[in-house]
Amino acid sequence: MKQMANLTHSYPPPIAIEIPEKLSWRFPRTFWIANCAELCERAAFYSMFIALDLYLSRRIGFSDIKAHAIAAPFSFFLYFLPPFMGAMADKLGFRRALLIAFTLLTTGYTLLGAFQYKATAILSLGLIAIVGAIVKPVISGTAAKSSDTAHRARAFSIFYMMINIGSFTGKTVAAPLRIELGLEYINFFAAGMTLMALIVVALLYRSIDAKGAGKSLAQVARGLLAVLRRGRFMCLIVIVAGFWIIQGQLYSTMPKYITRLLGDTAKPEWLANINPLVVILLVTPITHLVRRVKPENSIAIALFIIPMAALCVSLSDWVQDWAGNCVRLPGGLSLHPVTLMVIPGIALIGLAECFLSPKFLEYASKQAPEGQVAQYMGFQNLSSSIAWLFGFLLSGFLLDWYCPDPAKLSPADHAQWKAAIQSGGPMPDAYASAHYIWYAFCGLGLCAFVALMIFKFVTNRIDRHRLAAARAGST
Q1: Within a domain: residue 149?
Q2: Mean pLDDT of the residues in the chain
Q3: What is the 3-state secondary structure (H, E, C) of the chain?
Q4: For residue range 245-260, what is the model confidence (pLDDT) as tens digits?
Q5: What is the distance between the alpha carbons of residues 452 and 435, in angstroms, rounded to a whole number?
Q6: Is residue 342 a part of any domain in this protein?
Q7: What is the pLDDT of residues 364-395, one digit of tens each?
Q8: Are the C-beta atoms of 135 and 98 separated by less than 8 Å?
């Protein structure tokens, strides 16, 4: 605690937010155009990303551990690079930066689908990560610059809703493409969506004022170091990573977990869509509900919910022992226990996001120095970059231990696995502990919640001491 207190010495105390009597949902045209481009880009990204580990294993030929070891740095750099790419966008201008980004994204997705070689896949993913990191700070920077302080939370709630509409669209299309045509066609769809975004930007987007343009990478690095020295902000980023580690399992663990336990005709992409659907429906009312709540308190709600989501998924083994392979529900509906427990688990993840993301984006935007909005908005992505690097690496090992690739099974076990998928018989012993994966992530979520409680206790104590010292000095 003493070390944390020293880290937070230079961090300013929380600032009270003034809420005017009447708030508007009207924003400039550029704000809406930027959000439409973001919708297309997110549809492209999430359609590819939900099937990325399956694609790397089945089409490219990587093992679980190696496939996740490739997806981990891809995810890390996609979220780590925005501060640097934001500075470049400031220098180039938002419009020109988006035109370059969407052109190269279209190229990257096309190459990823067209050439199924290990080297080509790695190079394509590297290109997508780098230029995808340009889009993030430009769109979020446009949202920030198109709104004043009072309306920023609403602007980011719309921005986040558009992200989730794109996510929902991309994953909805990914399932039939994978089953009917093949995994590579998902990448061609992604290329088509980024091409659409390129056309939208070329025809309709107009750059808004970007004060502070022309920063060098050295200046950005110094700015990043300054943010890293903000102890309270960085502690919160690391703690929030506990949320994103679990949320990231919708993409790193769940697709293989579902297809290996239920077969290739299962649609983990559609199950993952429960997450953006919940966010689309609830993010705006929840953002309004917590508009006067301190960011740390709203984040605490999210971190309380998220380990419950992982625990819920893990309970499928207990349900299967009790009800067998088919749980009958009202209305004649029947579901496999795995599907039955994954659905509420993902819904809880979406609910937790509604409490966390808009408030965290708002919190990060208000830390931005004058003229550095696009650059600074990327810093909040450090939480996701840390989480997805660690989460993907851990997922590869957990899958290999508890829910292995059927191709690695002995001939007898593989035959039993195939029969179980086709007729609902018992699975091989290799899958008896598959639900242990979710125990591991539940434990990580609980650690994040406890860490936040400690964070709140320490920082509240520091703020009280500062206030007392300030009052004593004024007298």
Answers
A1: yes
A2: 86
A3: CHHHHHHCCCCCCCCCCCCCCCCCCCCCHHHHHHHHHHHHHHHHHHHHHCCHHHHHHHCCCCCHHHHHHHHHHHHHHHHHCHHHHHHHHHHHCHHHHHHHHHHHHHHHHHHHHHCCCHHHHHHHHHHHHHHHHHHHHHHHHHHHHCCCCCCHHHHHHHHHHHHHHHHHHHHHHHHHHHHHHCCHHHHHHHHHHHHHHHHHHHHHCCCCCCCCCCCCHHHHHHHHHHHHCCHHHHHHHHHHHHHHHHHCHHHHCHHHHHHHHHCCCCCHHHHHCHHHHHHHHHHHHHHHHCCCCCHHHHHHHHHHHHHHHHHHHHCHHHHHHHHCCCEECHHHCEECHHHHHHHHHHHHHHHHHHHHHHHHHHHHHCCCCCCCHHHHHHHHHHHHHHHHHHHHHHHHHHHHHHCCCHHHCCHHHHHHHHHHHHHCCCCCHHHCCCCHHHHHHHHHHHHHHHHHHHHHHHHHHHHHHHHHHHHHHHC
A4: 999 999 999 999 999 9
A5: 27
A6: yes
A7: 666 566 665 555 566 777 889 999 999 999 99
A8: yes
Q: Is 212 left (phi over 0), alpha (psi -120 to 50) or beta?
A: left
CA 219 to chain centre: 28
Backbone phi, psi, residue 416, to 5°: -65, -40
Cα distance between the two ends of the chain: 30
pLDDT at 112 (0 to 100): 97
426 is a domain residue: no
Rounded Cα distance, 358 and 161, in Å: 10
Which of 14-18, 209-213, 254-258, 316-320 has the highest mean predicted lDDT (pLDDT)?
254-258
- C-alpha closest to that of 295 among 199, 208, 249, 359: 359
Are 166 and 38 in contact by the 8 Å Cβ rule? The answer is yes
User: Number of C-alpha atoms within 13 angstroms, CB side, residue 462?
Assistant: 22
Q: When comparing pLDDT for 38 and 147, which is higher?
A: 38
How many domains does the structure of the chain reveal?
1
Determine which of 128-132, 141-145, 325-329, 372-376 has the lowest per-residue pLDDT on average: 372-376
Q: Provide the 10 A C-beta neighbour count for residue 14.
A: 14
Q: pLDDT digits over 159-192, tens only?
A: 878 888 898 899 999 999 999 999 999 999 999 9
CB 339 within 8 A of CB 262: yes
* CATH code of the domain covering residue 283: 1.20.1250.20
- 442 inside domain: yes
Tell me the residue range of the domain where 214 lies. Answer: 2-11+27-403+435-474
